[in-house]
Structures are given as C-alpha cells and as structure tokens.
Amino acid sequence: MFNALMLDKQDDRTVASIQSIDESRLASHGGVDVLVRVDFSTLNYKDGLAITGKIPVVRKWPMVPGIDFAGVVETSSHPDYQPGDKVVMNGWGAGETHWGGLAQKARVPGDHLIALPATITTRQAMAVGTAGYTAMLCVQALEKHGVATQDGDVLVTGANGGVGSFAVAILAKRGYRVIASTGRPEEAARLRELGAADIVERATLSEPGKPLQKERWAAAVDCVGSHTLANVCASLRYGGAVAACGLAQGMDLPATVAPFILRGVALLGVDSVYVPRERRVAAWQAIADEVPVATIERVATTITLADAPEAAARLLRGEIKGRVIVDVNA
After folding, report:
1. What percentage of the chain carries pLDDT values higher than 90?
2. CATH, domain 130-269, list 3.40.50.261, 1.10.10.60, 1.10.1740.10, 3.40.50.720
3. Phi, then psi, of 37 in degrees rounded to 5
4. Are 49 and 246 a contacting pair, CB within 8 Å?
5. Nearest alpha carbon to residue 228 among 320, 245, 218
6. pLDDT band at 322 (very low <50, low <70, confident <90, very high)
7. CB under 8 Å to 200, separation ≥6 — which residues?
8. Mean pLDDT on 212-233
C-alpha cells in the first residue's frame, strides 16, 4: 500500500483526497514498466488546474495528478534501469491520461524516464521540475534558431512564474541582456538578482495592441499567450524569434500576419510533454551544468502531500512565489 493524492469526479466537481492505494492498481505499460519509489514531486500550473478542476486537464477518472516526479527505481523490466537508479520524469500525460507523481509510488514506461544527472538530488530535481526543464527547452529553441547574445535584448514574459524565473536566470547566465515582464513590481529586486537587466510592467503588453509596433526585442520567451504574445510578436526586431510555452493570460492569439511577413519573425512552439528522449537528456544535462540548483532548492517551499490541494488553489491565485516541492513521504 502507498499514499496518493487522488482526484475523483463528483457532480461535475473535482474532489481531491489522500487515499491509501494498493500497488496492484498501478497500471501496466506493455511489459517495459519501471516501478519508482517517489521521493519528491512538485506543483506546476497544470497541476493546479487539474487539482482544482478549473480547466478539464484530467482525461480519465480517478486520477493521481502530478506531471513531475523524482525518485528511485524499485523494479524494472526496462534494459536502461536497475533497482537503485535515480530517475526523473516530466510530462508524457502523467496526471492527465495516467497516474502521475503526487504519490509515494508510480509505475511508468521506462522510455518516459531519464536518469537523473549525478550532480542533482531527487529533491533538487523537483525544485527545478517541468518549469526549469521547459525554460531550458525555450532557450535551446531560440539558440537553435540562431539567436545570439549580441543580437539585442531578450524579453521574458510572466517572469515571476516558474518557467519565467528559470528563463531569466538561464538567459542571463548565457550572457544575454534580459528584460523581465511582470505584473508584480514588488518582485523587481528578485528578478534582478536572477539576472534581469530591466523590468517592464505587464500591463504594457497585456492589452490589445497594434499589429506592428516599434522593434524592441531580439527574441523572447513567452509564458503568457493571448494579447501578450501578440504584442511580443509585433515588437520583435527584424528576424527575431519568440519561444512560446504558456497560456497564463489565455489560449487565444489575437495577432496578424504582419510581423511574420514584414519582419520575418519566427514563432517557435515549445512543448515539454512529449519531447523526444535525446532532447530531454540534453536539457537536463544543461540544467545540471548551468543552473544553480542548490540555491533554487534553498528558496523553494516544501509542502506535504496533504497540503497540495490548498497550495494548488493558492498557486492559481498567484499567491505562491518560487518553486513548490512536494515531499510525498512527509
């Protein structure tokens, strides 16, 4: 038996509770399963949506949420993993189509895991989580497109969020001049500590704007979507690019083709859920090499499994700063 946060559907409402689950209920995945003793999970924006039921993230019921986990292999029929190996998982439909990481145990296909870099602990991995992993994918996408430090300022929208904060830190460490957009000016000092050279008020980007605006940014990481992403595209410099990975403002994109056909800008979609294994490994190794995970771990908030529903609601209200680590065994 093991403890898990379980989501059930009752009268069109999502109800979350801590339940004791028999290990036999963990689904098999075609004979290449890995059973992981989870050490830590985390709370992401998508987890908040699933737990609160604000948006129909969950596709099957009942569901154990949690798109991330890090832990130790207990049993494995996959050739790449042996008992005792430390592993991390991000995405692959966890917490949506199959049981996720907010539990003391998880059984997943071995191909969904990667070995945790030796310099990162399982707790530190969840201080990074999908947020840091996605931010690294965004930076790598921009650099693959050809964005270089000498090209000019790089904007990060939603900079106070998990992905945004990591994007600011990673870009700054790589030598870019980073401009952070936030609706919380009281967090300006923290963003500057992460490496932001300047701060812009969220409201300057979040309202409907002209289809083509003054050229301001060489590139951007957008975690917000909607009018913000439209305004970012409209104000990119000629040949610039934006890596889009979020929808905090909305899923719509009220833009025109003007920036794309008149300035040759590029909109690079960044998915973190179904990224091929090779890119996952490269992203996590880059995190191990570049991101000060020990510092991030120290400033992260640690909660118990039982705390997760209330913390999920606070996360969606914007009341939580920084990363949230869930100690599933506390």
Report:
1. 83
2. 3.40.50.720
3. -85, 110
4. no
5. 245
6. confident
7. 155, 179, 180, 181
8. 97
User: Is residue 32's pLDDT more than 80?
Assistant: no
Q: Please tell me the distance from the alpha carbon of residue 96 to that of residue 100, in angstroms, as a whole number.
A: 8
> What ranges in the chain are assigned the alpha helix state H?
45-52, 122-145, 162-173, 188-194, 203-206, 226-234, 258-262, 277-290, 293-299, 308-316
- Asked whether the bond before 62 is cis by omega within 30 degrees of 0, the reply is yes
CATH code at 2-116+300-327: 3.90.180.10
pLDDT grade, residue 29 (50/70/90)? low
How far is it, in rounded angstroms, from Cα 211 to Cα 216?
14
Q: What is the per-residue burial (b if ≥16 Cβ within 10 Å, else e) of 2-11? A: bbbbbbeeee
Q: Which has the closest alpha carbon to 328: 70, 129, 67? A: 70
What pLDDT score does 297 carry?
84
Question: How many Å separate Cα 254 from the centre of its chain?
Answer: 24
Structure tokens at 23: 């290990």
